[in-house]
Design brief:
eight-stranded antiparallel sheet, about 0% helix, mainly beta, 2 domains
Length: about 450
């Protein structure tokens, strides 16, 4: 903010080791709907609730400073909130992402500071930095919390993450998905390194956005009022561009029809079982595309499976199988590609891709490619089939059946065209998907963007 804010080129294939990491990060939403950096005065959209003008100010270096009072937001009497110096404004319609940079160190039970998404006084969700020694004895009481009430009932049990003792500088974020009716809370100690606190489901429409701080005193009393300083408050929402969604565990595994062993539609979360090879959280997201959520990879340059970033992989079931993915990508430079894989390990695998290679004997370089790599042999068998330059929305399929692996593509689902066929000389362990520019770092190429609508494993 104001203070910052395939064909693989096989000759270049480099053997290496897997770096598997399981973790999620989110990037800021692409379209800023509102931003107040608290310079000199408040933006006119704001309204105070229970204002005490002696307990708030805007500092000379542009922070909103609130000296906390009693009590917190929730009023057990079911009436209007009694929270002092709660700053609110109307919420825009649709998906919302609200973010703040906060300096505060709650260090007494039950001090808190943070941001709020509000339906009414009995229905709200907050992302907070707070102190609760009974809640986090191992962290000495310091933590990040999602606090939420629906119909006056507390619904955020266990949504707590420890905060480093006396850490006072961090970021908080709430993500509201209108269609899914979910609110997800995040914290970050470095902007863009987001960690999920918790998800509230079946939440009613958001009517207000707020921020504030409170002492919520322990029966033994507060020795010193909490002082919370807000650097900025940003509201982002979808305006036709991709929007970052909360990437979380699904509430339960998605039911599957007969014959389908696994399917992930990337509906704002990953189905259980995925893990990363060389995750780069700056280069992937779950985004809105054509009114649906898709898994997006912005490719890096290295192209060997052991070194390319953001390959998503999962274990295989026993027996024969079919993997299918719906992909949108525009490979247009050597050696752009969007892939699906079957792995034995990082040096033995089969790769099927939508790619570009003007050195491969194709009329325009646009093609579908199927490769087998055995013991990291960079000159393994390759099939290359011409692709129209306009064919950027396609389906890819690998079939493992009767000791054969067959690759297919389709520009219309069900109209499959064979790319190639290899004998199965592998002991397959997992399957996956990815995208890569597949060129050395010094090459000047555009990053390819690949969007995956779904990934499915079925019985042949």
């Amino acid at each position: 903010m104001k203070k910052i804010f395939l064909l693989v080129l096989t000759m270049m294939l480099v053997a290496g080791s897997f770096q598997v990491a399981v973790g999620m990060s989110l990037r800021p939403a692409d379209s800023v709907h509102f931003l107040d950096e608290f310079t000199e005065e408040l933006a006119p959209e704001w309204t105070w609730v229970n204002e005490d003008s002696e307990r708030w100010s805007i500092t000379s270096d542009g922070w909103l400073e609130i000296q906390a009072s009693d009590p917190g937001f929730f009023n057990p009497e079911g009436e209007d909130t009694s929270m002092v110096n709660l700053l609110v404004q109307p919420a825009p319609e649709g998906d919302l992402v609200i973010t703040t940079h906060l300096n505060a160190n709650p260090d007494e039970n039950f001090q808190l500071a943070g941001i709020f998404l509000i339906h009414d006084n009995n229905n709200y969700v907050s992302a907070l930095s707070a102190f609760c020694l009974p809640c986090l004895p191992d962290a000495e009481g310091f933590g990040y919390f999602v606090e939420a009430f629906k119909g006056g009932e507390y619904v955020a049990s266990g949504m707590i993450e420890p905060r480093e003792a006396d850490l006072a500088n961090y970021y908080l974020r709430l993500v509201y998905s209108a269609d899914a009716a979910t609110v997800t809370g995040f914290y970050a100690t470095e902007l863009d390194d987001w960690h999920k606190i918790g998800v509230i489901e079946d939440f009613p429409e958001i009517t207000q956005i707020g921020l504030g701080a409170a002492n919520v005193p322990h029966p033994d009393g507060i020795e010193e009022d909490l002082v919370a300083s807000f650097d900025y408050l940003e509201i982002s929402s979808e305006t036709g561009l991709p929007v970052s969604y909360s990437v979380s565990d699904p509430p339960e595994p998605t039911p599957l029809p007969e014959g389908v062993l696994f399917r992930d539609d990337f509906d704002g979360y990953f189905q259980p079982g995925w893990s990363w090879i060389n995750e780069n959280p700056e280069k992937w997201d779950i985004v809105k595309f054509e009114d649906e959520t898709w898994f997006q990879i912005i490719a890096d340059k290295p192209g060997g499976l052991a070194v390319q970033s953001n390959t998503l992989m999962r274990p295989l079931p026993d027996g024969d199988f079919v993997i299918t993915a719906h992909v949108v990508a525009n490979p247009r430079q050597n050696f752009h590609q969007a892939n699906i894989f079957i792995f034995e390990d990082e040096t033995n695998f089969i790769r099927l891709n939508l790619g570009f290679c003007d050195l491969c004997g194709l009329p325009t370089g646009h093609g579908y490619f199927m490769e087998t790599i055995i013991d990291n042999n960079p000159f393994g068998d390759v099939y290359a089939v011409p692709r129209g330059a306009e064919d950027t929305d396609v389906y890819l399929r690998l079939v493992n059946e009767n000791d054969m692996i067959i690759g297919y593509y389709a520009t219309e689902l069900g109209e499959w065209n064979r790319i190639g066929r290899f004998g199965n000389f592998f002991d397959f362990k997992s399957v996956g998907l990815g995208a890569t520019n597949s060129v050395p770092e010094e090459w000047d190429v555009e990053d390819i963007e690949a969007l995956f609508d779904y990934f499915e494993i079925t019985i042949p």
